[in-house]
Design brief:
Length: 172
């Protein structure tokens, strides 16, 4: 044990003989630092705490403003998207209407094509019937009308009148 006491006394000798004096000096240095910081703040008129508070409030205001802008832009996008959806729905309705009209037109075209085919067959049947009827009839020479010499002068004004009547009917 004698060794322990010698070690303790030598460690006290290193720091000096008075530990209270060292503590007092440290306390004086700390108080001097605090006093100089207080004097500096009083002289410049600014404090970091108020600057931090102001900066925090500005950051909060910017964040709130950015949030409001995002909300407005989101609402605008929603409105634009809804308009696009409505326009797309109108276009789809128009497309369905056009498809229905096209289907109806194609059905009408098929119906008319069938009717034209039926009429063509009927015409061909009539031609064949007419050709066979002409083949069965005996050929008779065409008869020419003879005009009398005396009757031609009287018939001429009458023929001109009837020709004029025929022309008037076809023109009118």
């Amino acid at each position: 044990m004698p060794e322990l006491t010698s070690r303790n006394t030598s460690s006290f000798a290193r720091f000096g003989g008075q530990p209270i004096a060292i503590g007092a000096a440290a306390l004086a240095i700390v108080l001097l630092g605090i006093g100089s910081m207080t004097a500096w703040r009083a002289y410049t008129g600014t404090t970091p705490e108020t600057d931090r508070v102001v900066a925090t409030r500005q950051l909060q205001a910017r964040t709130a403003q950015a949030s409001e802008q995002l909300v407005e832009k989101t609402k605008g996008l929603e409105a634009t998207q809804q308009e696009s959806i409505d326009q797309l729905q109108v276009v789809q309705d128009q497309l369905q209407t056009v498809r229905r009209l096209l289907a109806a037109q194609q059905a009408d075209t098929r119906k008319l094509s069938e009717q034209v085919g039926t009429l063509t067959q009927s015409i061909e049947g009539l031609r064949e019937s007419f050709a066979s009827a002409q083949a069965n009839e005996p050929a008779s020479p065409p008869t020419a009308r003879k005009r009398s010499a005396g009757g031609s002068a009287k018939a001429k004004p009458h023929a001109i009148k009837s020709a004029n009547r025929k022309r008037g009917k076809t023109q009118g």
